[in-house]
Amino acid sequence: ELQQKVEEAEVLKMELQMLETERVRLSLVEEKLLDVLQLLQQLRDLNISKRALGKILLSTLESCRDPEPGKAQLFEVLDTLQQELTACELLHRQPMEQAQSPRSLSNPLVISC
User: Fold this and answer.
1) Cα Rg of the chain, angstroms
2) Using CA atoms, how far apart are residues 89 and 103, in angstroms rounded to an integer?
3) Is 34 contained in some domain?
4) Is residue 81 assigned to a domain?
5) Number of Cβ within a 10 Å radius of residue 59
6) Domain range holding 52?
């Protein structure tokens, strides 16, 4: 009976370890998803065309067509999408355009030069 309890404890320990591993994986996916959503929000605020956004998405899906062995496909797609969105030149021009946009004048403390 003692041996059975030890075996049950080992099984529970392994299950707990698997759950912790899954929790960490989901946490990483959640962080990556939040990053992607923030980039999409920034692009939406910059009025990126649906065509440009579609090209980014299709490029991402095309590059993830054959998943790398040992790498989670969902995480790979999110990671690639984040890289594609980050590389979008509209995001790099954002600070200059924002300074010229009428929306930046909505804050009365901002002085436009």
Assistant:
1) 23
2) 21
3) yes
4) no
5) 14
6) 1-64
